[in-house]
Amino acid sequence: MIPDQEILEGCRSGERHAFGLLYNKYASTMLGICMRYCKRKEEAEDVLHEGFIKVFSNVSKFRGEGSFEGWIKRIMINTSLSYYHANLKHYFKTGVEEMGDITTGDEEEGIYNNAPSRSELLSLIQDLPNGYRFVFNMYVFEDFSHKEIARELGISVNTSKSQLAKARRRLQKKLLQTYKMQPNIRSK
After folding, report:
1. Residue 117's closest CA among 133, 103, 127?
2. Is residue 4 situated within a structural domain?
3. Which of 77-86, 94-103, 147-156 is predicted with the least confidence, judged by mean pLDDT?
4. Degrees, nearest 5: CA angle 117-120-123
5. What's this model's pTM, rounded to 2 decimal places?
């Protein structure tokens, strides 16, 4: 596997092959991130492609502070949030039934016989109301603080805390009802 630094140098030099390597290396990971913020796989793919356009356009601005993958991840999160705000009026028309197949091909059984698969868990998260889902994803998966979430989403810190608590309660209730299990959703 080609190191990030070599790919980065190739991208900065405008080598098409390097852009392809970058996309191939990170596309599946970044699609997973986009899918956590989008209701449907097609939307996540649109966000992914828009995000990579931003990555390719701004690769020369990467200063080397932190990991290159983390920088790309942040662009994908911001692109997901922008996509949501730009398409807000459409979100109230799509239900979880219309999502279709959301699997990413890498299904794993949980440690319990009745535990949800990754795609089932993703479906439960995608079924959360938008505010709950965004705060939950940013706090649990992206490790944002409530202050950072508040700034990114334009909400108060207390609203962020409340949305997270409500998201956790809703997920716990759904997991208990559907799978007869209590989740271990970490808290800080």
Report:
1. 103
2. yes
3. 94-103
4. 150
5. 0.68
Q: How crowded is residue 170: how many other Cβ atoms within 10 Å of its Cβ?
A: 17
Please, is 114 exposed, middle or buried when counting C-beta atoms within 10 Å of its C-beta (0-12, 13-18, 19+)?
A: exposed
The last residue of a domain, from among 73, 95, 117:
95
3-state secondary structure at position 99: helix
Are 170 and 127 within one domain?
yes
Name the least confident of 60-69, 86-95, 96-105, 178-187: 96-105
Hey, how many other C-beta atoms are within 10 angstroms of the C-beta on 15? Answer: 13
CB 43 within 8 A of CB 37: no
pLDDT of amino acid 182: 56
Residues 6+ away with beta carbon under 8 Å from 77: 33, 37, 138, 142
Q: How far apart are CA 43 and CA 58, in angstroms?
A: 22
Q: Which residues, including other chains, have CB under 8 Å from residue 73's CB and lie 6 or more apart?
A: 30, 33, 142
Number of Cβ within 10 Å of residue 133's Cβ equals 21
Domain that holds residue 46: 1-95
70/188: higher pLDDT: 70
What does the alpha-carbon distance between residue 47 and residue 75 come to, in Å, rounded to a whole number? 10
> How much is the pLDDT for 120?
84
Tell me the residue type at 182: Q
